[in-house]
Amino acid sequence: ADGCPTAVTDLTYKESFNSCSQHDDVCVASAQPAQTALRGGSKAVGDVGECKPVSTKAGFDLDSYINGKWYIQEQAVTKYLPEEQNFCVYAEYSKLDKKSFWGYTIQVHNYAQEADGTPHDSGDLLVAKQTDDNDPAKLAVSPYFLPSLAAGPYWVLEYDEALGYALISGGQPDIDTGNGCKCGDGVNDSGLWIFTRSQDRDEGLVQMIRGKAEAQGFDISVLNTVDQTNCAKDM
């Protein structure tokens, strides 16, 4: 937005002031929002929106959460998960033997397919760490070779092991669509997912989780169905 080179993703920030005799361009108040987007799918400078803060899962137990595979039933489009990869998507997590150089503690493994069966497997590329000592449900994910400052937020908003579901957001939604709010669709600060322990879709359970997302202020129209049929059951 300021004309600086961007390595991975642009910074999102807001400045406000009552009066000042010297200020740069981003400090100027305008009746019309600036048209330069900060990141893919994000709001423009000056577009504050009406997105309420979301809440994460209270008493989140990471060890329980990563103890088993998660099948994605619905997900929003992101740069790394386009709609054509909405087939047989799953995620699994495990503790690293030791903390990495950049402080990551969790191995992340994501898998998706295209309609013709073309696989997209993250292998051992991705890692994660908890980012808030006061909120263990806030994590961040990144390629293992990047510092944690470059990691993207991964927030567990809802999680129930007994019922076998989780609702995941790529951080705080900040784009007001008029039907709720959403995160971006780039790399970081992006995405919304419905996870279930069972690969078979339970429509009643999925609709309940969609309701929970809507109650948190999300525009759930961004969620697309993942086809979990005709997938290897031992995936």
Automatic annotation (TrEMBL):
The organism's place on the tree of life at top rank? Eukaryota
Q: Which InterPro entries match?
A: Calycin
GO annotation, cellular component aspect: cytoplasm
Q: Which GO terms describe its biological process?
A: lipid metabolic process; response to reactive oxygen species
Transmembrane residues, as ranges? none
Read off the PANTHER family from this record: APOLIPOPROTEIN D
Know the name of this protein? Lipocalin/cytosolic fatty-acid binding domain-containing protein
